Amino acid sequence: MSASDTDDQRILLIDGHAMAFRAFFALPADGFSDGRGQATNAVYGFTRMLINVVASERPTHVAVAFDLPGGTFRDRIYDQYKGGRDETPPAFHGQIDLIMQVLDALGVRWLTYEDYEADDIIATLATRAEAAGDEALIVSSDRDAIQLVGAKVTLLQPIKGVTEMRRMTPAAVEEKYGIPPERYPDLAALVGEAADNLPGVPGVGPKTAAKWLTQYGDLPGLIAHAGEIKGKAGQSLRDHLEDVERNRLMNAAYTTLDLPEDPAHYSLGGGDRARVLEVFDDLAFGDTIRRDLPATLLGEDPQESGGPAPEEAEVLAVDGPDALRELLGEEGGLLALDVVEDVRGGPLMGLATPSARGAIALSSLDSETSTALGAALEEAAEIRVADAPAVRSWLAENGYRLGAQVRDLSLESFVLRPGARSYDAEALASDLGGASFEPKPRKPAASTLQKESAEVRAEHIARAGGRLAATAAALHPAAEELTARTGEAPWARRILDELEQPLQRVLETMHERGIAIDEQALAALREEFEGFVAQAKREAGAIVGEEVNLASPKQLQVVLFETLALPTTRKISSGHSTDAESLTDLQESLDPESSGHQFLSWLLRFREMSKLTGYLVGLDKVVDAGSRVHTTFQQTAAATGRLASTEPNLQNIPVRTAEGQRIRDAFVAGEGFETLLTADYSQIEMRIMAHLSEDAGLIEAFNSGEDLHNFVASRVFGVSPDAVDPAMRSKTKAVSYGLAYGLSAFGLSRQLRISRAEATALRDGYFERFGGVRDYLHHTVETARTTGYTETILGRRRYLPDLTSDNRQRRENAERVALNSPIQGSAADIIKLAMLRVESRMRAAELSSRMLLQVHDELVVEVAAGELDQVREIVEEGMGSAYQLSVPLDVGVGIGRTWREAAH
DNA sequence: TCTCAAACGTA
DNA sequence: CGTACGTTTGAGAA
């Protein structure tokens, strides 16, 4: 390193444990969680602090020092060292590991040193920096760090929380304590340090200590003259000289630890933004902290990374044919775009070639420009977008069409790394395309919009356009990045080419078709259900005699556990649960004549009926003029590869209860069609389990023709199949499905309401007879731990970094996910293959009948007159032979005028 | 106006 | 202390 480089080196040294601990207490533990029960408040606060300090202090090098668990040499000197501290709060556990993960992603070095404390690491590095003439900044709440302050060493002491810091320079130390920094350990030895359980000289505080030290120069000088000191304090000092000497020994920082010498080891810039965002996703961190990630921390130098930041690049306002021509340039062909329905500007489009970007307000386009734009979109050699179906449908509404060469980057990104927080255009632009964005402006109130001046309004529109243009522009590098990544991942290429990309068009078509609703039936049902809701409300209200919102768990808690003084239910974060299971249990413990019992009956009735009413209201909101509802099948929502259905969700329409089923009666074959056909896979997950585990018993179960759960139960309980009673069957069934979810003996006992011992025996008995299943499950987790991912039968991956976490909860959660993902994911693969087959065969046969819905293991088809036999054949065959497992794929088919009737 | 937790529907 | 989702609601933050 050259002399000029070393001139402006600044190393930031952080006491990791101390700061994490402060962050933990500064932020509410239950306010920050990764969504899986792991608190992340300390991780968040620490990361926030790091970002702030790096942004404001601009260090060139950073190191974070952590204490190791177990003792240090200081504990051997004094066995009470740091004694008397409270237990580490449970919610703090695991957060240090997570902080280390964040630091790794940021490329920030963190250090530990066997037998020494974080302070010694900091002392060593600070001393080195000083010797080299470099600056050092220490962030620590530990007072032992004060002794390190010098001309080039500044201490940042947190005052409040972890963001407000006091700068301790030599002058500041002198002013506060009346002695120079290097004398501080002497002072501390006299005064003592309660946090470390180091008692000082009774009756001597910082003032007296400073006075003595000033008088006698330093601690040895003072001790040499201890006999001369008068008064109570003098006697006290003489009585406690041993303590003082011990304290001084304890609080001296070690400055000679053997740590990496090369300054480059600690330099900033090894960060990986994508990795950081991945970790932030995992921690469920919000947008604010992402936005504030300084480029310097990641080693991204905006000045040298190829021109100005994306949002500052020139954005062409496309307001006429010339501007459009300028934007498209000569290259014409490679485009990227992002669109939005802006509250002020209406339909806005960001359009970019690899070298230029523009913003277009579609509503104000003249016809010539609009025609030219339409031609460009249809003829482009490749158009890169996030979420092609959404863009296509948005463009269609505005009178444009996309050509055939559309590349959906969301889909590619999803297959490569499922489970991300978002795959929208901005997420791709920033995670893969190197763009960065201001936080999204919040939606203005209608009144604000009305008062807005034309200038302000235009400025807002221009900003929205600029943002879209920046997003579109960043989709080009994102696309290149995805090309590179899929190039190295043949498994992903195959899933994309053979499954997801062709399926995307099928899903779009299904969305466009929609499913017909009998609006009259819907309205009648709604009226009836609303009547039940009102009745339940009335009756429940009459019992407690006060106004209570039954939809408010908080108000319910008051009524149940205070007004009615019922026994409390299981605890949740906000008090006690009022979910149906808890309330049913509670009700069973009460006298049927009691008011509590009756209140609960009406409450449960209210819950059930308002839930059902909610479906009807929801459907009513989205039904179109032709009495059809058009769900959107989301292809990048479920990490296992399953589809999800939104607006409305038609994958969770009630089916279990008779009243719920009446809602299914409102889904009907539409005009011009004769009937609905549903076809579902029976026990597909268990069949996949049999296939993957190659368990001979389970495979035999499926080949025997016997009812699956009956067969398995007869083996588990060692009785003949006809001796299996319903209780045995249902217990076995619970184990079978529980296993695919990673169910524990505890969970099983709770679900079946049996003892732990009985649950354990049940599971052991199961594994004894179906050893292949046990071996498979074990092997799945172990393989995933080694490779880092699980795989489906088609090779679809799911990455599970938490399998090696030191945090038990995270690890065990990841293990359950690892058990379930290949099974759920393979089932998703199979029905997706089936959908491709069914759709293409129906089109090839030129049938009018058409596939409308997918509900994970079920397809719903609308059948035209005279086509039933053909459709049934295509669906049965298409689903049944979608994939060759080692057990047959059994498909059940039902026919009916309504969705309920078509069940079978 | 937005975000979160609780509750609950499906496979 | 069983996986995967989406929607609605109330409550509290901003």
From TrEMBL:
Catalytic activity: DNA(n) + a 2'-deoxyribonucleoside 5'-triphosphate = DNA(n+1) + diphosphate
SUPFAM superfamilies (UniProt xref): 5' to 3' exonuclease, C-terminal subdomain, DNA/RNA polymerases, PIN domain-like
Lineage, broadest ranks: Bacteria, Bacillati, Actinomycetota, Actinomycetes, Micrococcales
Gene3D superfamilies in the record: 3.30.70.370, 5' to 3' exonuclease, C-terminal subdomain, 5'-nuclease, Ribonuclease H-like superfamily/Ribonuclease H, Taq DNA Polymerase, Chain T, domain 4
UniProt KW keywords: DNA damage, DNA repair, DNA replication, DNA-binding, DNA-directed DNA polymerase, Exonuclease, Hydrolase, Nuclease, Nucleotidyltransferase, Transferase
A Pfam family: 5_3_exonuc_N
EC number, UniProt record: 2.7.7.7
Keyword Manganese: no
Molecular function via GO: 5'-3' exonuclease activity; DNA binding; DNA-directed DNA polymerase activity
Similarity comment: family membership: Belongs to the DNA polymerase type-A family.
Residue span, DNA-directed DNA polymerase family A palm domain: 660-867
5'-3' exonuclease domain mapped to chain residues: 9-269
Purpose: In addition to polymerase activity, this DNA polymerase exhibits 5'-3' exonuclease activity. In addition to polymerase activity, this DNA polymerase exhibits 3'-5' and 5'-3' exonuclease activity.
Organism for this UniProt entry: Brachybacterium faecium (strain ATCC 43885 / DSM 4810 / JCM 11609 / LMG 19847 / NBRC 14762 / NCIMB 9860 / 6-10)
Name under which the protein is recorded: DNA polymerase I
GO BP, one annotated term: double-strand break repair
